[in-house]
Request: fold
Amino acid sequence: MSTKQIYYIRRSFLFPLGLLLVLTGALFVVCLFRGEPTAKLLILGLFMLPITVLFVESAFRRTLLTGDGVIAVKLLRKKELKYAEMTAVETVSVRKRVFLTLCAGDDFLIISNAYANFPRLVQSLLARVPATAISEETRQMAAAPPVKSTDVISCWLAVALLAFILYIQLGGLS
Reply:
């Protein structure tokens, strides 16, 4: 298995998140030009900060499965674990949210089911990791990896709400 597989954060999440960022920026500009109170601008600015960080971090994040190991690429950093050095592959599940923890001594990587093709990622990863390192919970989860969609729905609801607020700011409903 020397082929490299690349997994990205789901585009179905990134698209509404990017749209939310654009709408928040547009609302900030509209409020700025309309001379809205400083407190309102400050709240909008504080609202934009975590959205920007989440969007940029998610847009650059990817996991690569290579012939030798797993590489997690994040904004301005990269971490690699070799398959042969992995001592444990564990699973933590919180409702539909799943986190795979890959341990190699003191080093570890955490992979969530925010990635596109998560079931394929899990199957490919477990096929390459030493069988003794895989926990029973991970084997059970791998049989039917959960797919999370509530974050996408929440993001689209936030987009709809912000679009409505922007519409009102631009003079709608008056």
About this structure: The mean pLDDT is 92. The first helix runs from residue 11 to 33. The longest strand covers residues 97-104.
